[in-house]
Design the sequence.
């Protein structure tokens, strides 16, 4: 079970109870720092290992200058911002003890008018609060594993009763329980994001989901979409929001009971359609059971059901998919189409700590892959096809520029993953501090498109041998000899150190059988008993002829000095 | 949490004013809703059962002081939304284990109904 430390300068026992409960996944064990000690109590956890920490403070307790401002006393803004900076530094000092630290932004009760009409003036309380939060965000920016969560959204969701004076005087809890409920939901979403559990694909129905009406009955010209029609506008905005999500790397697909030709014609021809066929990475438009269609789609896209969200206006269809495929997330969905755009924007299942270049081009990558597949069918042999692609692999050392993507790859890849080690960015950076550990990353492209950074291998050397600790490759790059390039790079390095053997130990999971299959065909000696694969380094491991490799250098050995906090998008 | 079929007769058996059955029923409905809201934060074995005899706070009660405080705030809000008037549930020595109105759900219904009539 995950462990979470909750540190606050007010009574947050309600939040602790909500985080412990199974109302939101993942369930976790929660320890609360003793009331009254606040963030200082983090010092007491020096010897205890926790997965996550949540730090929630009242701004006047962190900043004595802000406390003076609240009392309308003279204060120094410079001191105020300096106090915020000190708080941020304190958090960064201790953040290394946790996989991730969630710091909660500061808010003001709506009943606090401050200077009234002048409160957003240069010395107003609202202005100070904005500056404090902005300064905190800037100082925490780039701190690995530290995330500032927006409490203002929780306050606004609950509304006028968010702050509870009664609860404060009864129990020193400033907020209505509903605020803690919103907080628990967001914190759990953030935990899922850090652990790589955010959803990747939205599967959409068509009739009365992407447009109003049944296209098979009324024709594409008469579906309600856009125009001077309030329902049409709502569907239009829903499509716009879906398109926006796809730009962040969330894939879109269709599962609809329709004639495929009729549905595609609507997507192609309707003048106000925002989403066109090219915006979807796949579809199953037929009269078959939707759950069965989703399973087929998952196999075609090589995505796990647990990475999918299903949106359908029909509660019967939603119930069917939920029952048949419990791994697929089926959010409850309003019957009123005017609520579709906002309901989509509220979903927290896409929360992710970073957005990488590979995320931004994910839809394009899927289309490139389809194009490759179409080309493959024109070749008599797999080898000829591979030669025709002109695959190029660039080898990189770990750096500030690629650490985020490397961490994402490590945590999200299941099938071609030798040991399925999961590490946060900070944990990986710390692990690589040792001189006897190395990481190489692999960027793949061909004449069709750029797959981005899709592979990594890590080794740990000892006196005579080297161990492959991680061997990870995105499914997009399977079976194109990139695997062999990765092994060859590691073997070449280990051979240059005069080591005797390179050994890889396969750790089975429910999903990584493809990795076993690769290693069985790799040329390494397989010891089935202890599931190890070994290569004697007195002979070279051959680089595959079909792949052009660049970026090789003996200087790749030193990756430690290049590490720093990665930039987030 | 819905009002059980026999709850009207149970209300009268608990010496609740019979001429205010409809008010009592509505108060009970609100309290059950508040309990459902509170149960979200409670572990399985702490959750409150929708019954007039359910003990809330005190000797046989399962609520600790923090949870009771939450229950007070939630219930007051729901009562105001339903009846349009503010009821302060923290008056009249609410935490007494012998006379306090948070002893059971039934005692709370009696207290709230009484407050509404004042």
Sequence:
């Amino acid at each position: 079970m995950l462990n979470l430390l909750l540190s606050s300068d007010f009574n947050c026992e309600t939040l602790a109870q909500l985080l412990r409960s199974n109302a939101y996944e993942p369930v976790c064990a929660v320890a609360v720092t003793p009331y009254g000690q606040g963030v200082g109590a983090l010092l007491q956890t020096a010897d205890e290992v926790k997965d996550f920490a949540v730090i929630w403070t009242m701004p006047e307790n962190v900043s004595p200058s802000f406390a003076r401002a609240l009392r309308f006393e003279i204060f120094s803004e410079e001191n105020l911002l300096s106090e915020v900076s000190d708080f941020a530094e304190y958090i960064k000092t201790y953040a290394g003890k946790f996989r991730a630290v969630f710091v909660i932004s500061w808010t003001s009760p709506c009943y606090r008018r401050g200077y009234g009409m002048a409160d957003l003036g240069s010395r107003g309380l609202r202005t100070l609060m904005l500056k404090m939060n902005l300064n905190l965000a800037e100082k925490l920016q780039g701190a690995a594993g530290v995330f500032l969560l927006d409490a203002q959204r929780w306050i606004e969701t609950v509304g006028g009763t968010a702050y509870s004076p009664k609860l404060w005087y009864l129990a020193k809890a400033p907020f209505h329980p509903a605020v803690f409920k919103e907080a628990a939901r967001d914190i759990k979403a953030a935990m899922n994001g850090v652990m790589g559990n955010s959803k990747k694909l939205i599967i959409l129905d068509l009739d009365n989901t992407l447009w109003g009406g049944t296209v098979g009955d009324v024709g594409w010209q008469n579906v309600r979409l856009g125009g001077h029609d309030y329902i049409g506008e709502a569907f239009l905005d829903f499509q716009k929001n879906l398109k926006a999500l796809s730009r962040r790397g969330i894939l879109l697909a269709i599962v609809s009971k329709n004639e495929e030709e009729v549905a595609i014609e609507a997507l192609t021809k309707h003048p106000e359609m925002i989403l066109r066929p090219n915006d979807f990475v796949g579809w199953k438009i037929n009269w078959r059971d939707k759950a069965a269609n989703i399973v087929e789609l998952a196999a075609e896209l090589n995505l796990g059901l647990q990475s999918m969200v299903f949106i359908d206006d029909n509660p019967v269809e939603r119930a069917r998919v939920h029952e048949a495929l419990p791994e697929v997330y089926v959010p409850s969905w309003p019957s009123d189409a005017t609520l579709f755009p906002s309901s989509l924007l509220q979903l927290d299942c896409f929360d992710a700590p970073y957005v990488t270049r590979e995320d931004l081009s994910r839809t394009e990558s899927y289309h490139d892959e389809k194009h490759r597949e179409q080309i493959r069918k024109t070749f008599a042999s797999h080898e000829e096809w591979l030669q025709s692609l002109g695959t190029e692999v660039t080898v990189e050392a770990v750096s500030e520029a690629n650490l985020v993507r490397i961490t994402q790859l490590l945590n999200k890849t299941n099938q071609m993953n030798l040991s399925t080690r999961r590490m946060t960015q900070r944990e990986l950076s710390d692990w690589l501090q040792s001189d006897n550990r190395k990481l190489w990353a692999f960027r793949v492209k061909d004449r069709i498109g750029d797959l981005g950074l899709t592979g990594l291998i890590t080794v740990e050397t000892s006196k005579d041998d080297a161990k492959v600790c991680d061997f990870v490759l995105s499914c997009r790059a399977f079976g194109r000899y990139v695997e062999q390039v990765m092994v060859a790079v590691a073997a070449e390095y280990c051979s240059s150190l005069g080591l005797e053997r390179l050994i890889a130990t396969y750790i089975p999971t429910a999903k990584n059988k493809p990795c076993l299959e690769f290693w069985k065909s790799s040329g390494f000696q397989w010891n089935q008993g202890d599931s190890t694969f070994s290569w004697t380094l007195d002979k070279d491991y051959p680089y595959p002829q079909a792949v052009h490799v660049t970026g090789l250098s003996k200087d790749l050995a030193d990756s430690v000095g290049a590490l720093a906090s990665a930039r987030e998008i | 949490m819905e009002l059980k079929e026999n709850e009207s007769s149970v209300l009268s058996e608990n010496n609740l004013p019979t001429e205010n059955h409809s008010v009592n029923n509505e108060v009970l409905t609100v309290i059950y809703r508040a309990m459902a809201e509170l149960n979200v934060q409670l572990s399985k074995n702490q959750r409150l059962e929708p019954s007039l005899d359910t003990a809330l706070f005190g000797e046989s009660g399962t609520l600790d002081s923090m949870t009771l405080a939450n229950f007070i705030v939630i219930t007051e809000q729901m009562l105001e939304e339903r009846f349009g008037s503010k009821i302060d549930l923290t008056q009249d020595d609410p935490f007494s284990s012998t006379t306090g109105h948070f002893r059971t759900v039934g005692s709370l219904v009696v207290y709230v109904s009484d407050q509404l009539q004042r």
The CA atoms of residues 253 and 477 of chain A lie 22 Å apart. The radius of gyration of chain A is 27 Å.
